[in-house]
Specification:
The chain has six helices and 13 strands. Strands 1, 2, 3, 7, 8, 10, 11, 12 and 13 form a nine-stranded antiparallel beta sheet that branches. Strands 4-5 form a two-stranded antiparallel ribbon. Strands 6-9 form a two-stranded antiparallel sheet. Pfam families: TLD. This is 4701_t:CDS:1. It comes from Dentiscutata erythropus.
């Protein structure tokens, strides 16, 4: 009964609850997916291209400043499903001022995080997880583009996406340019902070988890030492 209720609550035309449980496990650096009962995250649909539109401005209007998100893309005429996890905000960029008419001017901005990843769910029995190799190139903010995981996965214009393997571990799609039949963006939030805190102590491999901090604070390989680990344990966070 509980599983059927969660199916009704989860709104996607591209992925299913098994996919969500797998992605939640990747967020927490688990070796195996979460079960339905264990999954500590909620995934709220912010945008569906076929419902809301595929424009760059539509993406920013509906998805900016919503915290951690996952993006999933159904590739046109292929059956391929790929996506990415951004543990921080999306934005049009850094505000640098206003133009003559008072409109905000944005400058493209490179964000820093060790916790982003991209993935392929095309073959559910052999999914691909690709974690970021270059944290300073992990996430870009740009008013001229949609979801932007460096060069490795980027919505460059309406329905047009690009993927060139550079800053993440593995290639997730063979095509360098492709079109989206549909795409969705989900806000990722914690359902129960008390349960989440318990899980962070018991179930997670902390050696891979990092908070988003200025890039010169962290070692280049993004692995925590015992001192940094002791600083992180009391915290409850997503990315």
């Amino acid at each position: 009964m509980e599983n059927r209720e969660r199916w009704r609550q989860f709104d996607s035309k591209i992925i299913n609850l098994n996919d969500i449980n797998r992605i939640a496990g990747w967020i927490d650096y688990r070796q195996i997916p979460y079960s339905y009962q264990e999954n500590p995250f909620e995934f709220k649909l912010l945008l569906r291209g076929s419902r809301d539109g595929f424009g760059i401005d539509t993406f920013h209007d509906l998805c900016d400043n919503n915290g951690a998100t996952i993006v999933v893309v159904k590739v046109e005429n292929s059956g391929k499903v790929i996506g990415g996890y951004n543990p921080i905000n999306w934005s049009k960029g850094k505000i640098i001022g206003n133009d003559y008419y008072g409109r905000i001017i944005f400058r493209d901005y490179r964000c820093y995080t060790c916790n982003s990843f991209i993935f392929s769910l095309t073959n559910r029995n052999d999914s691909i997880l690709s974690r970021v190799n270059s944290p300073i190139e992990s996430i870009y903010w740009s008013s001229r583009k949609g979801p932007y995981f460096g060069d490795d996965l980027c919505m460059s214009s309406s329905s047009t996406w690009n993927s060139i393997t550079r800053f993440y571990e593995h290639k997730i799609i063979s095509e360098e340019t492709f079109f989206a039949e549909d795409y969705e963006v989900f806000q990722v939030s914690i359902k129960n902070h008390q349960i989440r805190r318990k899980q962070m102590f018991e179930n997670v491999d902390y050696t891979g988890i990092l908070c988003v901090l200025p890039y010169d604070f962290w070692p280049t390989n993004c692995k925590l030492g015992n001192i940094l680990l002791s600083m992180l344990l009391p915290r409850t966070f997503i990315g």
